Amino acid sequence: MRTVYLGTSDFAATVLRRLADSPHAPVLVVTPPDSRQGRGRKVSPPPVAELAREAGMDLLQAENVNDEAALGRIRAAEPEAILVCAFGQLIREPLLSLAEILNVHPSLLPRWRGAAPIERAIMARDPQTGVCVMRLTAGLDSGPVALRAELPLGDNEEYGTLAPRLAELGGELLAEALDLLADGTLAFAEQDDAAATYAEKIGAQDRRLDPAESAEHLAAKVRALTPHIGAYLELEGGERLGVRAARTVDAAVVAGTTKAEWGVLLLGCGQGTLRLDVVQPAGGKPMAAEAYLRGHPAPKLG
Questions:
Q1: Rounded to an integer, what distance in angstroms lies between the CA atom of residue 174 and that of residue 180?
Q2: Which of 18, 26, 53, 234 could link 302 by a cystine bridge, Cβ 3.0 to 4.6 Å?
């Protein structure tokens, strides 16, 4: 099928790589313009743009996919299907009605509609997650679902290990959906709106580790935000100590305090104790807690 692909992130690039090796390789790839990223604020292209250039695909970098210039390029490609994955721009009419639009969403809809489904699934300690291919509509991830596939969520699953597996699964599922669409046999089922939950975008408050919460909850938060966003403890004086790896342990530490012994850094929580295995001092790089403690006392919380 003639397809146009709209995507931005590493996740979307993995899905695009799978499509590039299928009979449905996009005739046009649309992604946002280059932007400043990282600590150095260096201007860099989106991962999807990099892959499209490497693969020799026709590329459009658009500030707004709904403006006339972008719409003209997409119409000229004469797509039979438009494919969307982690794109980050709201798609409106008339683009919504230009062709069948299939969206790859990394959750088991209607569970975790919205911007951060992978992180929220880990934070909630869901026993499983997965990927859906759905018809894109004007609502927030509320369109009918065509295909879905599940993955178990391990107790120690991090975003950094889970997201690539979901992306690979999403690429396979989208290729399958396009095969069925080309045959005229792709069927959709409406979602149960009453069962919907929402994966709000990760904000500053989501990154802070509150020792009043349980150690299990904080460990899940650290895993959900590693390595791409990062959780942190607020220290005395307003300084932040990043936490990049942590786990629950059977130890007695007063809630709201830290304890250092034998190169191990522990945090007392509202319920249970958290062992901080990898930390990141302000302005520094991630390091093992043992290395951190060689140059710092046990941090005092703010």
A1: 10
A2: 234
Other Cβ atoms closer than 10 A to 41: 9
Q: Directed axis angle between helix 47-54 and helix 10-20, to 10°?
A: 20
Contact 165, 128 (CB under 8 A): no
Whether the Cβ atoms of residue 48 and residue 29 lie closer than 8 Å to each other: yes
d(CA 259, CA 299): 8
Residue for token pair 């018809």:
135
Could you give all domains of the chain from N- to C-terminal order, each with its CATH number?
3-199 (3.40.50.170), 205-295 (3.10.25.10)
**Which residue carries 């499983």 as its tokens?**
128
- Residue pLDDT, tens place only, 60-109: 999 999 999 999 999 999 999 999 999 999 999 999 999 999 999 999 99
CA–CA separation, 36 vs 174, rounded Å? 30
What's the whole-model pTM score?
0.94
Closest to 50 (Cα-Cα) out of 13, 87, 86, 15: 13
Taking the CB of residue 192, how many other CB atoms lie within 10 A of it?
Answer: 9
